[in-house]
Protein backbone atom coordinates (compact mmCIF):
# COMPACT_ATOMS: atom_id res chain seq x y z
CA UNK A 1 0.00 0.00 0.00
CA UNK A 2 3.01 2.29 0.04
CA UNK A 3 5.82 3.35 -2.25
CA UNK A 4 9.44 3.65 -1.26
CA UNK A 5 11.97 5.98 -2.90
CA UNK A 6 15.15 4.64 -4.45
CA UNK A 7 18.10 4.38 -2.14
CA UNK A 8 21.79 5.09 -2.37
CA UNK A 9 24.53 4.19 0.04
CA UNK A 10 24.33 4.85 3.79
CA UNK A 11 27.19 6.82 5.34
CA UNK A 12 27.63 8.80 8.50
CA UNK A 13 27.01 12.53 7.77
CA UNK A 14 29.71 15.11 8.29
CA UNK A 15 28.61 18.19 10.23
CA UNK A 16 29.90 20.73 7.68
CA UNK A 17 28.69 18.92 4.59
CA UNK A 18 26.47 20.79 2.08
CA UNK A 19 23.78 19.30 -0.15
CA UNK A 20 24.85 20.82 -3.47
CA UNK A 21 28.05 22.00 -5.16
CA UNK A 22 28.81 25.74 -4.67
CA UNK A 23 27.96 26.84 -8.23
CA UNK A 24 25.15 24.36 -8.86
CA UNK A 25 21.82 25.93 -9.89
CA UNK A 26 19.10 24.62 -7.57
CA UNK A 27 15.41 25.04 -8.43
CA UNK A 28 13.12 24.33 -5.49
CA UNK A 29 9.73 25.30 -6.89
CA UNK A 30 7.30 22.40 -7.01
CA UNK A 31 6.76 23.06 -10.73
CA UNK A 32 10.46 22.54 -11.42
CA UNK A 33 10.60 19.03 -9.92
CA UNK A 34 11.31 15.97 -12.07
CA UNK A 35 8.25 14.10 -13.28
CA UNK A 36 8.40 11.62 -10.39
CA UNK A 37 9.66 14.09 -7.81
CA UNK A 38 6.35 14.43 -6.02
CA UNK A 39 7.22 11.46 -3.78
CA UNK A 40 10.37 13.16 -2.49
CA UNK A 41 8.40 16.41 -2.20
CA UNK A 42 5.84 14.73 0.06
CA UNK A 43 8.58 13.26 2.26
CA UNK A 44 10.18 16.70 2.67
CA UNK A 45 6.87 18.24 3.72
CA UNK A 46 6.37 15.58 6.38
CA UNK A 47 9.89 15.90 7.82
CA UNK A 48 9.42 19.68 8.07
CA UNK A 49 6.41 19.04 10.30
CA UNK A 50 8.49 16.64 12.41
CA UNK A 51 11.20 19.30 12.77
CA UNK A 52 8.58 21.92 13.70
CA UNK A 53 7.90 19.78 16.78
CA UNK A 54 11.61 19.92 17.65
CA UNK A 55 12.25 16.29 16.71
CA UNK A 56 15.11 15.06 14.54
CA UNK A 57 14.87 11.59 13.02
CA UNK A 58 18.57 10.75 12.95
CA UNK A 59 18.32 7.88 10.47
CA UNK A 60 16.37 8.94 7.36
CA UNK A 61 16.57 6.50 4.46
CA UNK A 62 14.27 4.60 2.11
CA UNK A 63 12.86 2.07 4.56
CA UNK A 64 11.78 4.82 6.96
CA UNK A 65 9.82 6.99 4.47
CA UNK A 66 6.77 5.26 2.98
CA UNK A 67 4.71 7.15 0.38
CA UNK A 68 0.93 6.82 -0.11
CA UNK A 69 0.18 7.99 -3.68
CA UNK A 70 -3.57 8.32 -3.16
CA UNK A 71 -3.37 10.82 -0.30
CA UNK A 72 0.07 12.25 -1.10
CA UNK A 73 1.24 11.69 2.47
CA UNK A 74 4.47 10.07 3.61
CA UNK A 75 4.57 7.90 6.71
CA UNK A 76 7.83 8.31 8.65
CA UNK A 77 8.67 5.66 11.21
CA UNK A 78 11.50 4.19 13.32
CA UNK A 79 12.53 7.17 15.44
CA UNK A 80 14.95 5.06 17.49
CA UNK A 81 17.79 7.48 16.73
CA UNK A 82 15.54 10.56 17.07
CA UNK A 83 16.13 13.38 19.51
CA UNK A 84 13.90 16.11 20.96
CA UNK A 85 15.42 19.57 21.27
CA UNK A 86 15.45 23.16 20.05
CA UNK A 87 14.32 24.04 16.52
CA UNK A 88 17.66 25.23 15.13
CA UNK A 89 18.71 25.14 11.45
CA UNK A 90 22.13 23.60 12.16
CA UNK A 91 20.59 20.84 14.26
CA UNK A 92 17.81 19.99 11.83
CA UNK A 93 20.12 20.20 8.82
CA UNK A 94 21.82 16.93 9.79
CA UNK A 95 18.65 15.04 8.81
CA UNK A 96 18.87 16.63 5.36
CA UNK A 97 22.52 15.64 5.06
CA UNK A 98 21.56 12.04 5.82
CA UNK A 99 18.96 12.20 3.05
CA UNK A 100 21.61 13.45 0.59
CA UNK A 101 23.96 10.62 1.55
CA UNK A 102 21.34 7.89 1.22
CA UNK A 103 19.29 9.16 -1.74
CA UNK A 104 20.00 10.46 -5.25
CA UNK A 105 20.68 14.12 -5.97
CA UNK A 106 17.37 14.63 -7.81
CA UNK A 107 15.48 12.98 -4.94
CA UNK A 108 17.26 15.26 -2.46
CA UNK A 109 16.25 18.28 -4.53
CA UNK A 110 12.58 17.24 -4.44
CA UNK A 111 12.83 16.52 -0.73
CA UNK A 112 14.29 19.97 -0.01
CA UNK A 113 11.61 21.63 -2.17
CA UNK A 114 8.84 20.04 -0.10
CA UNK A 115 10.67 20.77 3.14
CA UNK A 116 11.12 24.46 2.31
CA UNK A 117 7.50 24.88 1.21
CA UNK A 118 6.28 23.56 4.57
CA UNK A 119 8.93 25.26 6.72
CA UNK A 120 8.05 28.67 5.26
CA UNK A 121 4.45 28.13 6.37
CA UNK A 122 4.79 26.38 9.73
CA UNK A 123 8.32 26.96 11.09
CA UNK A 124 9.14 30.52 9.98
CA UNK A 125 6.13 32.13 11.73
CA UNK A 126 7.42 30.81 15.08
CA UNK A 127 11.14 30.92 14.27
CA UNK A 128 11.70 33.82 11.82
CA UNK A 129 14.58 33.32 9.42
CA UNK A 130 14.73 29.55 9.93
CA UNK A 131 14.23 28.60 6.28
CA UNK A 132 16.73 31.14 4.93
CA UNK A 133 19.35 29.94 7.42
CA UNK A 134 18.76 26.34 6.41
CA UNK A 135 19.04 27.16 2.70
CA UNK A 136 22.33 28.97 3.39
CA UNK A 137 23.68 25.65 4.70
CA UNK A 138 22.46 23.72 1.64
CA UNK A 139 25.01 25.21 -0.77
CA UNK A 140 24.47 25.76 -4.48
CA UNK A 141 22.73 28.75 -6.06
CA UNK A 142 19.07 28.71 -5.04
CA UNK A 143 17.20 29.86 -8.16
CA UNK A 144 13.57 29.33 -7.15
CA UNK A 145 11.81 28.55 -3.87
CA UNK A 146 8.16 27.86 -3.06
CA UNK A 147 7.57 30.82 -0.74
CA UNK A 148 4.57 33.14 -0.24
CA UNK A 149 4.50 35.94 -2.80
CA UNK A 150 5.52 39.41 -1.70
CA UNK A 151 2.44 41.62 -1.17
CA UNK A 152 1.67 44.52 -3.48
CA UNK A 153 0.06 46.31 -0.53
CA UNK A 154 1.50 45.41 2.86
CA UNK A 155 -0.54 45.15 6.04
CA UNK A 156 0.98 48.48 7.11
CA UNK A 157 -0.12 50.10 3.82
CA UNK A 158 -3.68 48.81 4.19
CA UNK A 159 -3.87 49.87 7.84
CA UNK A 160 -2.62 53.39 7.10
CA UNK A 161 -5.08 53.75 4.23
CA UNK A 162 -8.20 52.02 5.52
CA UNK A 163 -8.17 52.08 9.32
CA UNK A 164 -8.93 55.84 9.53
CA UNK A 165 -11.56 55.71 6.77
CA UNK A 166 -13.47 52.46 7.38
CA UNK A 167 -16.13 51.86 10.02
CA UNK A 168 -16.22 48.13 10.85
CA UNK A 169 -18.08 48.30 14.16
CA UNK A 170 -21.39 46.95 12.83
CA UNK A 171 -19.76 44.12 10.87
CA UNK A 172 -20.76 45.90 7.64
CA UNK A 173 -17.65 47.75 6.33
CA UNK A 174 -18.44 51.30 5.31
CA UNK A 175 -16.27 54.21 4.23
CA UNK A 176 -16.91 57.27 6.37
CA UNK A 177 -14.22 59.58 5.00
CA UNK A 178 -11.91 59.96 2.01
CA UNK A 179 -8.89 57.73 1.66
CA UNK A 180 -5.58 59.51 2.26
CA UNK A 181 -3.68 60.08 -0.99
CA UNK A 182 -0.18 60.33 0.48
CA UNK A 183 0.32 56.74 1.70
CA UNK A 184 0.81 54.84 -1.57
CA UNK A 185 1.25 55.69 -5.24
CA UNK A 186 -1.78 56.79 -7.32
CA UNK A 187 -1.80 53.41 -9.11
CA UNK A 188 -1.84 51.49 -5.83
CA UNK A 189 -4.54 53.76 -4.46
CA UNK A 190 -6.62 52.91 -7.54
CA UNK A 191 -6.09 49.19 -6.76
CA UNK A 192 -7.45 49.76 -3.24
CA UNK A 193 -10.48 51.51 -4.68
CA UNK A 194 -11.04 48.60 -7.09
CA UNK A 195 -10.91 46.13 -4.21
CA UNK A 196 -13.39 48.07 -2.09
CA UNK A 197 -15.82 48.36 -4.98
CA UNK A 198 -15.48 44.70 -5.83
CA UNK A 199 -16.07 43.74 -2.20
CA UNK A 200 -19.22 45.84 -2.04
CA UNK A 201 -17.98 48.06 0.80
CA UNK A 202 -20.57 50.69 1.69
CA UNK A 203 -19.81 54.25 0.65
CA UNK A 204 -17.14 53.22 -1.86
CA UNK A 205 -18.60 55.44 -4.59
CA UNK A 206 -17.78 58.55 -2.55
CA UNK A 207 -14.03 58.16 -3.00
CA UNK A 208 -13.90 57.71 -6.78
CA UNK A 209 -11.49 60.06 -8.59
CA UNK A 210 -13.01 63.18 -10.12
CA UNK A 211 -11.53 62.37 -13.53
CA UNK A 212 -10.85 58.94 -15.11
CA UNK A 213 -7.45 57.44 -14.41
CA UNK A 214 -5.23 56.34 -17.33
CA UNK A 215 -4.14 52.77 -17.92
CA UNK A 216 -5.64 49.34 -17.30
CA UNK A 217 -6.30 49.90 -13.59
CA UNK A 218 -8.17 53.09 -14.43
CA UNK A 219 -10.35 51.24 -16.96
CA UNK A 220 -11.07 48.52 -14.44
CA UNK A 221 -11.93 51.08 -11.76
CA UNK A 222 -14.32 52.84 -14.15
CA UNK A 223 -15.97 49.50 -15.00
CA UNK A 224 -16.47 48.68 -11.34
CA UNK A 225 -17.79 52.14 -10.56
CA UNK A 226 -20.47 51.96 -13.25
CA UNK A 227 -21.44 48.33 -12.58
CA UNK A 228 -25.03 47.85 -11.44
CA UNK A 229 -25.89 44.77 -9.41
CA UNK A 230 -29.02 42.85 -10.18
CA UNK A 231 -31.57 42.06 -7.51
CA UNK A 232 -30.18 38.55 -6.94
CA UNK A 233 -26.72 39.67 -5.82
CA UNK A 234 -26.14 40.10 -2.06
CA UNK A 235 -25.64 43.48 -0.44
CA UNK A 236 -22.71 42.29 1.71
CA UNK A 237 -19.18 41.54 0.58
CA UNK A 238 -19.78 39.20 -2.30
CA UNK A 239 -17.26 36.98 -4.11
CA UNK A 240 -19.56 36.20 -7.04
CA UNK A 241 -18.90 35.45 -10.66
CA UNK A 242 -19.30 39.17 -11.29
CA UNK A 243 -15.65 39.52 -10.28
CA UNK A 244 -14.70 37.49 -13.32
CA UNK A 245 -16.96 39.53 -15.59
CA UNK A 246 -15.34 42.75 -14.45
CA UNK A 247 -11.77 41.62 -15.02
CA UNK A 248 -12.20 39.44 -18.10
CA UNK A 249 -12.06 42.22 -20.75
CA UNK A 250 -8.62 43.22 -19.47
CA UNK A 251 -7.16 39.79 -18.74
CA UNK A 252 -4.46 40.06 -21.43
CA UNK A 253 -3.02 43.22 -19.91
CA UNK A 254 0.19 42.66 -17.86
CA UNK A 255 -0.98 45.16 -15.22
CA UNK A 256 -4.03 43.02 -14.41
CA UNK A 257 -2.03 40.44 -12.42
CA UNK A 258 -0.51 43.13 -10.19
CA UNK A 259 -3.93 44.70 -9.76
CA UNK A 260 -5.52 41.39 -8.73
CA UNK A 261 -2.62 40.64 -6.35
CA UNK A 262 -3.18 44.04 -4.70
CA UNK A 263 -6.92 43.46 -4.44
CA UNK A 264 -6.19 40.12 -2.75
CA UNK A 265 -4.07 42.00 -0.19
CA UNK A 266 -6.96 44.38 0.55
CA UNK A 267 -9.56 41.60 0.80
CA UNK A 268 -7.36 39.64 3.19
CA UNK A 269 -6.88 42.75 5.32
CA UNK A 270 -10.68 43.18 5.50
CA UNK A 271 -11.19 39.51 6.40
CA UNK A 272 -8.65 39.68 9.23
CA UNK A 273 -9.94 42.99 10.65
CA UNK A 274 -13.55 41.86 10.64
CA UNK A 275 -12.50 38.64 12.35
CA UNK A 276 -10.67 40.59 15.06
CA UNK A 277 -13.66 42.65 16.21
CA UNK A 278 -13.96 42.60 20.00
CA UNK A 279 -17.51 41.20 19.93
CA UNK A 280 -17.84 39.12 16.75
CA UNK A 281 -21.31 39.39 15.25
CA UNK A 282 -23.04 37.38 12.58
CA UNK A 283 -22.52 40.11 9.95
CA UNK A 284 -18.82 40.32 10.86
CA UNK A 285 -18.42 36.56 10.45
CA UNK A 286 -20.28 36.52 7.14
CA UNK A 287 -18.27 39.41 5.74
CA UNK A 288 -14.96 38.04 7.01
CA UNK A 289 -15.64 34.73 5.26
CA UNK A 290 -16.76 36.41 2.06
CA UNK A 291 -13.79 38.76 1.92
CA UNK A 292 -11.46 35.76 2.32
CA UNK A 293 -13.44 33.87 -0.31
CA UNK A 294 -13.12 36.78 -2.73
CA UNK A 295 -9.32 36.45 -2.46
CA UNK A 296 -9.60 32.82 -3.54
CA UNK A 297 -11.90 33.68 -6.43
CA UNK A 298 -9.53 36.36 -7.68
CA UNK A 299 -6.82 33.70 -7.77
CA UNK A 300 -9.08 31.40 -9.82
CA UNK A 301 -9.15 33.88 -12.70
CA UNK A 302 -7.70 32.46 -15.94
CA UNK A 303 -5.24 35.35 -16.21
CA UNK A 304 -2.92 33.73 -13.65
CA UNK A 305 -0.12 31.52 -14.99
CA UNK A 306 0.43 28.37 -12.93
CA UNK A 307 3.97 29.53 -12.19
CA UNK A 308 2.55 32.38 -10.07
CA UNK A 309 -0.38 30.51 -8.53
CA UNK A 310 1.90 28.57 -6.18
CA UNK A 311 3.35 31.67 -4.48
CA UNK A 312 0.05 33.58 -4.44
CA UNK A 313 -1.84 30.66 -2.86
CA UNK A 314 0.85 30.36 -0.19
CA UNK A 315 0.47 34.09 0.53
CA UNK A 316 -3.29 33.74 0.96
CA UNK A 317 -3.05 30.59 3.09
CA UNK A 318 -0.40 32.09 5.39
CA UNK A 319 -2.87 34.89 6.17
CA UNK A 320 -6.09 32.90 6.34
CA UNK A 321 -4.58 30.57 8.91
CA UNK A 322 -4.83 33.46 11.38
CA UNK A 323 -8.62 33.69 10.95
CA UNK A 324 -10.45 32.32 13.97
CA UNK A 325 -12.89 30.32 11.81
CA UNK A 326 -10.26 28.82 9.46
CA UNK A 327 -8.85 26.01 11.62
CA UNK A 328 -12.27 24.85 12.96
CA UNK A 329 -13.76 24.96 9.43
CA UNK A 330 -13.58 21.19 8.87
CA UNK A 331 -14.51 20.39 12.47
CA UNK A 332 -17.54 22.66 12.73
CA UNK A 333 -20.70 20.69 13.37
CA UNK A 334 -23.10 21.23 10.45
CA UNK A 335 -25.62 22.01 13.17
CA UNK A 336 -23.60 25.14 14.01
CA UNK A 337 -24.57 28.39 12.31
CA UNK A 338 -20.93 28.99 11.31
CA UNK A 339 -20.99 25.91 9.08
CA UNK A 340 -23.35 27.50 6.56
CA UNK A 341 -20.98 30.45 6.18
CA UNK A 342 -17.68 28.59 5.95
CA UNK A 343 -18.81 25.80 3.60
CA UNK A 344 -18.93 28.28 0.71
CA UNK A 345 -15.34 29.31 1.44
CA UNK A 346 -14.35 25.64 1.46
CA UNK A 347 -15.92 25.11 -1.97
CA UNK A 348 -13.91 28.02 -3.40
CA UNK A 349 -10.70 26.61 -1.96
CA UNK A 350 -11.43 23.18 -3.47
CA UNK A 351 -12.11 24.79 -6.85
CA UNK A 352 -8.80 26.65 -6.65
CA UNK A 353 -6.86 23.48 -5.81
CA UNK A 354 -8.32 21.70 -8.83
CA UNK A 355 -7.35 24.59 -11.08
CA UNK A 356 -3.81 24.57 -9.70
CA UNK A 357 -3.39 20.85 -10.42
CA UNK A 358 -5.45 20.20 -13.54
CA UNK A 359 -3.96 23.11 -15.53
CA UNK A 360 -0.23 22.30 -15.47
CA UNK A 361 2.37 24.73 -16.75
CA UNK A 362 4.15 23.74 -19.97
CA UNK A 363 6.56 20.95 -19.03
CA UNK A 364 10.18 21.66 -19.84
CA UNK A 365 12.72 18.89 -20.09
CA UNK A 366 11.77 16.14 -17.65
CA UNK A 367 9.65 18.26 -15.31
CA UNK A 368 5.95 17.49 -14.84
CA UNK A 369 4.83 21.10 -14.38
CA UNK A 370 2.18 20.02 -11.87
CA UNK A 371 1.34 21.19 -8.35
CA UNK A 372 0.69 17.74 -6.88
CA UNK A 373 0.38 19.07 -3.34
CA UNK A 374 -2.66 21.16 -4.39
CA UNK A 375 -4.51 18.02 -5.50
CA UNK A 376 -3.59 16.19 -2.30
CA UNK A 377 -4.98 19.05 -0.22
CA UNK A 378 -8.15 19.03 -2.31
CA UNK A 379 -8.56 15.29 -1.75
CA UNK A 380 -8.02 15.62 1.98
CA UNK A 381 -10.32 18.64 2.46
CA UNK A 382 -13.21 17.26 0.38
CA UNK A 383 -13.03 13.82 2.00
CA UNK A 384 -12.92 15.24 5.53
CA UNK A 385 -15.79 17.66 4.87
CA UNK A 386 -17.86 14.91 3.24
CA UNK A 387 -17.43 12.62 6.22
CA UNK A 388 -18.39 15.52 8.49
CA UNK A 389 -21.67 16.00 6.62
CA UNK A 390 -22.45 12.28 6.65
CA UNK A 391 -21.73 12.14 10.38
CA UNK A 392 -24.12 15.06 10.98
CA UNK A 393 -26.82 13.30 9.00
CA UNK A 394 -26.35 10.18 11.12
CA UNK A 395 -26.64 12.17 14.34
CA UNK A 396 -29.53 14.30 13.11
CA UNK A 397 -27.73 17.60 13.81
CA UNK A 398 -27.55 18.91 10.25
CA UNK A 399 -28.69 22.53 10.43
CA UNK A 400 -29.95 22.97 6.88
CA UNK A 401 -33.21 21.55 5.53
CA UNK A 402 -32.31 17.96 4.48
CA UNK A 403 -33.91 17.97 1.04
CA UNK A 404 -32.06 21.15 0.05
CA UNK A 405 -28.95 21.93 2.08
CA UNK A 406 -27.78 18.38 2.73
CA UNK A 407 -28.37 17.25 -0.84
CA UNK A 408 -26.48 20.24 -2.22
CA UNK A 409 -23.52 19.84 0.14
CA UNK A 410 -23.21 16.08 -0.45
CA UNK A 411 -23.41 16.55 -4.21
CA UNK A 412 -20.82 19.34 -4.34
CA UNK A 413 -18.36 17.71 -1.93
CA UNK A 414 -18.65 14.32 -3.62
CA UNK A 415 -18.11 16.00 -6.99
CA UNK A 416 -14.96 17.72 -5.76
CA UNK A 417 -13.71 14.46 -4.26
CA UNK A 418 -14.29 12.32 -7.35
CA UNK A 419 -12.74 14.92 -9.64
CA UNK A 420 -9.64 15.20 -7.47
CA UNK A 421 -9.31 11.41 -7.37
CA UNK A 422 -9.82 11.20 -11.14
CA UNK A 423 -7.23 13.90 -11.82
CA UNK A 424 -4.77 12.15 -9.52
CA UNK A 425 -5.18 8.82 -11.32
CA UNK A 426 -5.06 10.37 -14.78
CA UNK A 427 -1.82 12.21 -14.01
CA UNK A 428 -0.24 9.08 -12.53
CA UNK A 429 -1.21 7.07 -15.60
CA UNK A 430 0.27 9.72 -17.91
CA UNK A 431 3.54 9.43 -16.00
CA UNK A 432 3.41 5.63 -16.27
CA UNK A 433 3.73 5.02 -12.55
CA UNK A 434 2.13 1.54 -12.31
CA UNK A 435 2.79 1.11 -8.60
CA UNK A 436 1.08 4.42 -7.85
CA UNK A 437 -1.93 3.46 -9.96
CA UNK A 438 -2.39 0.07 -8.31
CA UNK A 439 -2.29 1.65 -4.85
CA UNK A 440 -4.64 4.50 -5.77
CA UNK A 441 -7.21 2.12 -7.19
CA UNK A 442 -7.68 0.19 -3.96
CA UNK A 443 -7.35 2.98 -1.37
CA UNK A 444 -10.27 4.33 0.63
CA UNK A 445 -12.87 1.95 -0.76
CA UNK A 446 -15.53 2.75 1.81
CA UNK A 447 -15.69 6.42 0.84
CA UNK A 448 -15.47 5.56 -2.85
CA UNK A 449 -18.39 3.15 -2.54
CA UNK A 450 -20.53 5.80 -0.88
CA UNK A 451 -19.55 8.39 -3.49
CA UNK A 452 -20.62 6.09 -6.30
CA UNK A 453 -24.14 6.16 -4.83
CA UNK A 454 -24.27 9.94 -4.33
CA UNK A 455 -24.71 10.86 -7.97
CA UNK A 456 -28.06 9.05 -8.11
CA UNK A 457 -29.26 9.16 -4.50
CA UNK A 458 -32.51 10.93 -3.71
CA UNK A 459 -32.36 13.68 -1.08
CA UNK A 460 -34.91 11.80 1.05
CA UNK A 461 -32.49 8.84 1.24
CA UNK A 462 -29.51 10.88 2.40
CA UNK A 463 -29.85 9.78 6.00
CA UNK A 464 -29.85 6.17 4.87
CA UNK A 465 -26.74 6.82 2.83
CA UNK A 466 -25.06 8.39 5.84
CA UNK A 467 -25.60 5.19 7.81
CA UNK A 468 -24.12 3.01 5.05
CA UNK A 469 -21.05 1.14 6.31
CA UNK A 470 -20.55 -1.44 3.58
CA UNK A 471 -17.09 -2.05 2.18
CA UNK A 472 -16.94 -2.28 -1.59
CA UNK A 473 -15.85 -5.60 -3.05
CA UNK A 474 -15.26 -4.06 -6.44
CA UNK A 475 -11.99 -4.69 -8.23
CA UNK A 476 -9.47 -1.94 -8.86
CA UNK A 477 -10.64 -1.58 -12.46
CA UNK A 478 -14.26 -1.15 -11.33
CA UNK A 479 -13.17 1.48 -8.84
CA UNK A 480 -11.45 3.44 -11.59
CA UNK A 481 -14.67 3.39 -13.60
CA UNK A 482 -16.58 4.42 -10.48
CA UNK A 483 -14.43 7.51 -10.06
CA UNK A 484 -14.94 8.51 -13.69
CA UNK A 485 -18.68 7.87 -13.37
CA UNK A 486 -18.80 10.29 -10.46
CA UNK A 487 -17.91 13.02 -12.95
CA UNK A 488 -19.73 11.69 -16.00
CA UNK A 489 -22.80 9.54 -15.12
CA UNK A 490 -23.11 8.55 -18.80
CA UNK A 491 -19.68 6.89 -18.83
Give a short overview.
The chain is mostly helical and 491 residues long. It has 18 helices and eight strands.
Helix content: 40-55%
Total DSSP helices: 18
Structural class call reads mainly alpha
Total count of strands: 8
Spatial arrangement of strands, main beta sheet: 1-6
The pLDDT mean sits at 75
Q: Which sheet architecture does the biggest sheet show?
A: 2 strands, parallel
Note the gap between the termini.
28 Å
Identify the quaternary structure here.
Answer: single chain
Q: What is Rg?
A: 24 Å
Q: Which percent band covers the strand fraction?
A: 5-15%
Shape: globular
SSE sequence, one letter per element: EHEEEEHHHEHEEHHHHHHHHHHHHH
How many structural domains does the protein architecture include?
A: 3
Low-confidence stretches: 1-13, 230-241, 437-491
Amino acid sequence: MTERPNAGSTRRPRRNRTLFAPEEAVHLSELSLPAGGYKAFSAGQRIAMVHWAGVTHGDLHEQHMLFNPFTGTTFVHDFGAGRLGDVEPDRMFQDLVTVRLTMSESWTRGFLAGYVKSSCMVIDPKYPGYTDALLARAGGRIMSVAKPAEPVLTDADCTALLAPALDLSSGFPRLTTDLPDDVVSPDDLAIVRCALLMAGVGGSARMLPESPLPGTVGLLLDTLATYKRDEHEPDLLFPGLAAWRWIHPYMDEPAVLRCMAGMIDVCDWLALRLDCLGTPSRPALINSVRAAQLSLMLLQHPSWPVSELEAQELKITSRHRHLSWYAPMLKTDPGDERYTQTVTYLMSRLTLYRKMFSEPSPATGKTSGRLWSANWRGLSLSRTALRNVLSALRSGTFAREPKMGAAQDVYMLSTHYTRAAHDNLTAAMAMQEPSDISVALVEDMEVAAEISEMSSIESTDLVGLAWSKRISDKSGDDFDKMVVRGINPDY
